[in-house]
Amino acid sequence: MIKIFDLESNQLLTELSDEEFAMLTEALEEESIEDSDYYLHISDVEYLEENETSPALIAKLKSMLEGREDREIKFLRSE
Fold first, then answer.
1. What is the DSSP string of 33-79?
2. What letters, b where the CB count within 10 A reaches 16 and e where it falls short, cover 22-36?
3. Which of 4, 8, 21, 74 could make a disulfide contact with 37, Cβ separation 3.0–4.6 Å?
């Protein structure tokens, strides 16, 4: 499982399966392999939705945005 946190507040936003996380990171830009933070924009969610990504993942991403257009997030792999 991958825990997703708000980068600024460190608030836990959701947990994603490895498969869901892989789908998400495919759509997001990485600055380097060691990155553990991302910029999530509603357009990223819309892109994933248009490409028939799992409805459960889309719901989690929309929930993470909490009505915002964007949010900086970070992740932590849990054992």
1. TT--EEEEEHHHHHHHHHTT--HHHHHHHHHHHTT-SEEEEEEEE--
2. ebbeebeeeeeeeee
3. 74
